[in-house]
Write a structure and sequence with these properties.
Helix content is 37%, strand content 18%. The protein is of the alpha/beta class. The protein has two domains: 3-306, P-loop containing nucleotide triphosphate hydrolases (Rossmann fold, 3-Layer(aba) Sandwich), CATH 3.40.50; 316-516, 2-Layer Sandwich (Nucleotidyltransferase, domain 5). Strands 3-4-5-2-6-7-1-8 form an eight-stranded mixed beta sheet, sandwiched between helices. Strands 9, 10, 11, 12, 13, 14 and 15 form a seven-stranded mixed beta sheet that branches. A hairpin with a 7-residue loop joins strand 9 and strand 10 (347-355). Helix 5 (90-103) packs across helix 6 (118-133), helix 10 packs antiparallel against helix 11 (292-303) and helix 16 crosses helix 18 (495-509). Residues 60-237 form the Terminase large subunit-like ATPase domain. Pfam families: TerL_ATPase (PF03354), TerL_nuclease (PF20441). It comes from Lactococcus lactis.
Amino acid sequence: MSLIQDWIGQDKDNGEMIKLLKKKVAKIEHEIDYKKADKIFNFIEEFMTLPNNERFKIIPYHKAVLTLMYCIPYQIDEFVVIVGRSNAKSILDVMIALIELFLFPKPNSVIALMATKKDQAEKILMKHFRAMGNCQGTVINKFKNQFKLNKEQILVKDNSILKSKGTEISIYASNEDTLDGGREQLVIIDEFGAFKKNPLITIRQGLRKNKGTLFISTTNNVIRGGAYDDELESWKEWVKDDDFSHWVFYYALDDYDEVKDSSKYIKANPALGYTLSLEDIQKDFIGAIGNPVKMAKIITKRFNLSMTDSTTIFTKQIVDKCLVPPLDFEGRLVAIGSDFSVRGDVWGTVIGYRENGHYYFKAIPIMPESAEDKFKHLGETVTHEGINNMTDEAWDAFMSAMNGSVPIALNYDPNYAKNFIDKFEQTYDIEFYNKVMQNSFKLSNTLEATQKLMEEGKIHFDSKLLAVHLMNAETKINDFGLMRIIKKGYTDKIDLADALINLMWWFLESEESEDYFI
């Protein structure tokens, strides 16, 4: 294995994104200037200290980042490093600033460091520079009379003996609309995953004009729907192309099952054994027991698993376990869960039974033919010619889809329910009618139990549309750690997921279900 491949990570410790990165690197590794790389490493280790004045030993993944940033014959337009928390990512910002000022300097350069807040940027760079200025042997201490340093700017004097004379490094908060009039040759962004708004469009325009570089170091998306989510999918494509001006180091676990296996943690934590230990991560987990919100943040910050996914209670991996070939419910005794909808939307119903601790379900999605069905391609929606779902045409469609199954219980959201209940009472001999507090925190235990049964392979259904509705649902967690489900996006549908949970509430919480289903 070549040096660069070794620095990126051992093959056995690589996630899928890092494996793809290494394939891309292999195409140009013969062009790497390792002598230049050694010059960088020696400079950093000789002239840089940590804020506590201890000497710093470069971590292998740092070597890989700096080598591709400075030691290949290609203009670097954008470089992104995504690692778990406590992996010394922000020290890369400091190293790059030192390299630009002292090792490969250009006069009158304009460099920007952006963080969520100005005081965070100041802590990353300015306080670190001040600490080095007070430490004998550092490059900052050696040349401290050659520049001015305040809370918001490092300015190399115009009459400095340094080749970087006239260069300025300024700090910015993520909510500032503009940088320095688009004069920057380098923009360094720290913890991009915490940015609410995306400043990169404007930044890229200025850098493109100046043939500059954008460098981002971050952990994962702590702000759902924020700037990070806007960019992540395009970053992932960079490891698949031959554009050597764009690089992403995306250290992450590949799926949630790996959270249970500490031997996989290095996939998201390339500084494991250097700046953090397994014990550090395990302490986080212990501190989050019983607090789903805290646990979700640990999973996203330590392992770079998506925050959106970590609050998606029914992930694709879980739902895929439940899908089975077509089920036959004709003549079966069943219970019903229903989420009534009157106009232009899905009336979502799930019917099911329990047998030997396993649960079997069929979905009945009903809607008018005139309504827009975004999942028409799945061929599962039962449509009717009525103007809404309370018409005789809708009820006939429902009856046909029931296919002779015999309902013993109806568990429903009371909204819009009265006319529907009348039809059920006129048609079926249902013993149990239960109003369910749909989408309330009172269903938290039902949600958790349903997820667990799905993971254990004890829930089975034959509807891809139900699978989609389940994956469209995410959890909202209150201050007491209780959860309810909401839809991820405004146009997403979760009617069948709601119906399933209404039904599971009866199976799990009512004693009556035990009289009819084993």
